[in-house]
Amino acid sequence: MPQDLAEIYRTTYRALVRFLYRKVWDAARAEALAQEAFARAVVHKPDNARGWLFIVAANMARDDARRAARERRHLTLLKAEPQSEPATDDAVHAETERTQVRAALEQLTPRDREVLLLWDSGLSYDEIAAQTGLARGAIGTTLARARRRLVEAYEGKSGEHVARG
Amino acid sequence: MSHVDDGILHGYLDGELAPAEARGVDAHLAQCPECRRRVDEERALIARAAELLAVATPPDRALPPFRAGDVKAPTRLWWQVRLPLAWAATVALALGIGAYLGSDEQRAPEAEAARSTVAPPLARPEPPRQDLTRRETRVATGAARTAPAAPPAAPQARARVDNIAVPRPEPVMSADRAAAGVADSVRLEARPEWIAQPKASGEERSQWQKEGAISIDSARRVLGADPLVVPGVPIEALYRGRAIGYADVVIVEQALDSTTTIEVITARTAPQLLDQVVVASAPAARPELARAADSPAAALAKRPAPRAAKAAAQVRPDLFRDVRGPLSADSLAALRRRLQPLRAATGP
After folding, report:
1. CB of A35 within 8 Å of any CB in chain B?
2. CATH of the domain at A152
């Protein structure tokens, strides 16, 4: 059903890019992978396209991370001289923040992280349960834990102790 | 009712509880200040987590257009997707060379001869390429290690990678043709050389598997066009062939003389996504072709052969063609330039 898929593309593409970005941490790669996922959906015509897309995207991101790790080993030699791009303060700040969030996310267990990222991508508890194999009743608990750990890890790291609760 | 646990509370705040369950939570909250306080806490936590995740968001760009059947991603991912295959092919080929040279003693000298004619343009000194393709070099040396019997394997393996990287020059050519005018004939001449270079060596022959003999009519049906032949050379037999990356292959055996048989290969490249791949690789392909045109081999190919050039122009551009046989690379290249569709070749 290309019509349905076009609709899903409109509503889900950005979420998928975001989801992928938080795995590969490279906007261009995330977009390329998201397009690839949709291209595969066109070919495979899965029943539950939205859930299917996120599963495929997660798998691609995993493969991509492996490949990227492999390439980094080669690139370390080539990148002897640092890129001297004059960065604005804002850009530096945003980049620092992003790095800290990334570090905080990486402190979560893979399962907690996956559930959190899927929720943030707009999937329902039912969809998350179907995708992760968790019981539906466990999603709320997992999300509660994931959110708490993310905030704690971030705030512990950045030193910004936001007075809350 | 006992206090509401975190999971239920988050489900409640996420709006993911069943209506009955949500009513139960409402009822409890109404009478439990402790849990009301917790609801506020958890709500803040949820908002904070969402806020942090929002930081980890790529720049918002316009939604790229989507058309069903518009398979854009593979072209974009072309390098990433193809490269692993190229590696596998390279390793497989390197092993193949080793096996070939090892098993087939009688043909080895001949392959050696073919290589010596092919090698010069390829056996460039390593350094210039090293920075560019560290990995290729690694594979190449690896290949040399796996196949110690074939020291020249390294340059060939690399040439093969190049070849895979730009799998189909023809449509690029035809696209150029409209615009290129005079440069056209030069490029047309250059093309067989470009295809031929790595193909003349031994390992390539094994790529084309000969299967059952077929009639001329079935060959036409298979290809959807006349198979190519060298005009004026008696045809011994036609075979159905098989090769990775090609949908349909026809191999025509022609006898140059009583002892020399050549094989003319006509192949239809596999349809589907390859077309798009070629579009994506067009800019990459051009410098490659331009370089081929500058090479000594291409200079040689510029020898006037107007009729052949005309014939080449008639040949459908989506057909891959090649000539193999126990001849020097130059002779094979000359034969390649003479290829014509069967009907035109045999007709009046």
Report:
1. yes
2. 1.10.10.10
B243 in the same domain as B148: no
Q: Is the dihedral of CA B152, B153, B158, B162 positive or negative?
A: positive
Task: Answer yes or no: is B297 within a domain.
Answer: yes
pTM: 0.45
Q: How distant is the Cα of A141 from the closest Cα of chain B, in angstroms?
A: 4
Please indicate, yes or no, whether residues A45 and A102 belong to a single structural domain of this protein.
no
Residues A113 and A51 in one domain: no
Domain count, chain B: 3
Note whether A13 contacts B63, CB cutoff 8 Å: yes
Across the A:B interface, residue pairs with CB atoms under 8 Å apart total 133
* pLDDT of B38: 94
Does A50 share its domain with A106?
Answer: no
Cβ–Cβ contacts within 10 Å for residue A143, how many? 27
Residues A36-48: tens digit of each pLDDT: 899 888 888 888 8
| Residue B3 contacts A, CB cutoff 8 Å | no
Confidence bin at A19 (pLDDT 50/70/90): very high
Residue B187 neighbours by CB under 8 Å, 6+ apart = B173, B176, B180, B289, B293
pLDDT digits (tens, 9 = 90+) for B226-283: 888 888 888 888 888 877 777 788 888 888 887 788 888 888 776 544 444 444 444 4
Confidence at residue B196, expressed as pLDDT on a 0 to 100 scale: 40
Burial grade of A2 (CB within 10 A; 0-12, 13-18, 19 or more): middle
Residues B239 and B309 in one domain: yes
Domain that holds residue B36: 6-55
Distance from CA of B210 to the nearest CA of A (A): 32
Q: Does residue A57 sit in the same domain as residue A95? A: no
